[in-house]
Amino acid sequence: MTAVGEPAGAVDVALRDGSTVRVRPVVAGDYDQLRALLGSLSPESRWLRFFSAGVDLDTMARRAASRGSGRGYGVVATVGAPERIVGHAAYVVTAPGKAEVAFEVSEERHGQGIGTLLLAHLAAVAPSEGIQRFVATVHPSNSRMAQVFRNSGFPVELAVGPGLLEFELPASLDAGAIAAFEDRDRAAAVAAVGHMLRPSSVALIGASRREGTVGTALLSNLLAAGFTGPLRVVNPKAGKIAGIQAYPAIADVPGPIDLAVIAVPAQAVPSIARECADAGVRALVVLSSGFAEVGADGARLQAELLDACRTGGMRLVGPNCLGVLNTAPDVSLNATFAPVVPRRGRIALASQSGAFGITAIAEAARRGLGLSSFVSTGDKADLSGNDFLRYWEQDADTDVILLYLESFGNPRRFGRIARTVARTKPIVAVKSGRSAAGARAAASHTGGLLAASDVTVDALFAHAGVIRTETVAEQLDTAALLAAQPLPRGNRVAIVTNAGGPGIAAADACTAAGLAVEPLSERCRRRLPDHAALGNPIDMIASASAEDFQRTIEQVAEDPDVDAVIAIFIPPLITRAADVAAAIRAASERAAASGTPLLAVFMAVSDAERAELSADGAIPVYGTPEEAVRALGHVGRYADWHREGPDEPPVFADVDGDLVAGILADALGAGGAGWLDPADVERVLAAYGIALIESRTAHSAAEAGRQAADLGGLVAIKAVAPGLVHKADAGAVALELHGKSAVVRAAQAMTRDVAAAGHAVEGFIVQRMAPPGVELIVGIVGDPDFGPVVACGAGGHAVELLGDVAVRLAPLGPRDAKAMLRSLRTYPLLDGYRGAEPADVAAVEDVLLRVSALAAAHPEIAELDCNPLRVGPAGALVLDARIRVAAPPPLRPFPALDR
């Protein structure tokens, strides 16, 4: 979408009721529409707006239509096709840095938040025109306008004058205003999704008598589910379908329609969408394929469909989707053509893929898992997973949220929303595409480490507390545990089994998943059955009865040193699986009372038997120990994230952000983009308190020798050559040099070697040799979608070869930095490996946090390498650093529909 502030820019904005308006700058051709808007105001509204009921509306409309940069700026809110202006706002410059702001909103649109939204769009433009403050003069009786300012989220100052109130507020979106708009966005998303999942009435457009069609399957599912509201069918060629009166067009359907489900050929969909808008339909689900997924022609058709929805104020799921369903008894909606009907439950599922959705519904049904609601988002032309997350956050029927994602519309927005939702309801996601998600032009070591992978998705999910699984089976395994059992307090697992081999397999899987299988306490062992092996796993041997399982599980679950219990059963000759299942369910009451999650593994039984054993959903049942442990590992990591709470980034009082901003602005102004020279790199790092080894620059071999002599002792020299990333490979690094002549000879040889590698040497960096230590890499890559990505890993010459890297999204909190370092395979090198003195790990964490703060504050940094960062017992020093700058991607318009 076009950003606010561009002359032809237009964005679509969601209102509190879930409908939409379009916001764009005023143009000269708006005079007639603005005159109509002013003329439609009641005498009271006109008087409150202009302090006069007899104002010259022609003059006011001309002024409103002529706002331009320099003296003022105006925006309008429009609906319909052709568009109709329903709101107008403008500011006029009254003094340096200050402008007066005013609004008009049509009478029927009062209370929808249009005035506040227009204020936000003015605030998005004002700073670029030197406006710092807005002022509004309001009549004391104009409570409606006063409320706009009070509810805006902007910090408002009020002055009382003779017969007037003067509001003053900052002309920019601060944190409070953004938070207020996020609240409005949440309310708008809940309202919009409500029309999809809790419609008061439904029309099916494309119902058919022909077997095997989507329309037939849809109608069959709608009827079988027993939708509780009016159900209408539209077919111009049928009188009745399945005993239901069919109407020729949506305009002929009696009564209001909340949701229209469309299953007709793609070419007909945009015109039908416009008919729906004219009929007052609130929401559309378009199942038809043949849109953006098929290429350019389909994309144009999709744009027409979306335009019809936007101008009509409707919200859209799809196109090219499976549909929506809601199992709540007061709704009973199944507007999908899925062949399997899920049972009612407390798990919500959003799938971008219809095929994946069908698979997930079928697999959930096979396992006895129930769904609260389901949506297939398809091509995501409008509503996306972000909107459904907002809805399910407040949905009393949903405890766990499942997502299948093929792409992100706005990853940063997803991260913000998911992080909030995951604090109250766990989110389990399958994100397809672990192979190269797109070519990233990587000119640095950090970029090379992150290219051709989706580690940024892992970082996004880790930041937001989203559980990532690889398959639908793993996703449902995890959801079954989350839906039925409490979160574990820690990572200590007790394994109860009637067979030794599966118990050992479970213990091995726990170790791989970061779970601990520790010896039981003496108190716990005394209370176990006499014939049980008292280690952990607890092997009760093949003759163990159902009562043995129940008693053992109850005793172990109450042990304060046990955080979760896995019960494994293989049917012997005598004990029946059904009896053991009943015993485990009985034991679960004691386990739940102690807050200990309980998982059951029934091996060597059929899928049908396993589904029957788990039919009540009280205990998650798995087919193998590995499946149970994998689910518990996912849930345990989520529990840790949930328990720890927010990890706020530190605020550094000693950084000089203004200095860095100036360096970056100069660099962009001089060359547009590229690598900073070494002196500027040093200044940037120093401004953020990041220590760089003492260095000198030299323009010739002779000068390098003189600088080395001045430094004294052992030195290193490095060539400065544009475009040269891997210096050591090109012979551009020489170490452990002593004396002026040695440095001169090395610099001369370096010049020849680098030239042979295709680069021209522009100078040299002479550095004092650093004390010995462990070499790491710390870097930044500015991802246009995810924002700045911070990487930390094993550094030095073999950085890409080792590929030992941890990644997070900026800004980092202290726990992020600590976890990144400790997740490295090479972390033991920092922690006193083989008797070495431990390195100053706290110094590395500090560097990570400062680099993160630098990345978050300065999106102009496209890539940064600190490689190597040498760490020893006395601290951490950057030995080599590079920074590439580039104009950051334009900010997405806010507030706007930007999914």
From TrEMBL:
N-acetyltransferase domain segment(s): 21-170
Molecular function terms, GO-annotated: acetate-CoA ligase (ADP-forming) activity; acyltransferase activity, transferring groups other than amino-acyl groups; ATP binding
Enzyme class: transferase
Protein EC: 2.3.1.-
Keyword terms: Acyltransferase, ATP-binding, Ligase, Nucleotide-binding, Transferase
InterPro entries hit by this protein: Acyl-CoA_Synth/Transferase (IPR051538), Acyl_CoA_acyltransferase (IPR016181), ATP_grasp_subdomain_1 (IPR013815), CoA-bd (IPR003781), GNAT_dom (IPR000182), Ligase_CoA_dom (IPR043938), NAD(P)-bd_dom_sf (IPR036291), Succ_CoA_lig_flav_dom (IPR032875)
Family annotation (SMART domains): CoA_binding
Domain of life from the UniProt record: Bacteria
Protein name listed in UniProt: GNAT family N-acetyltransferase
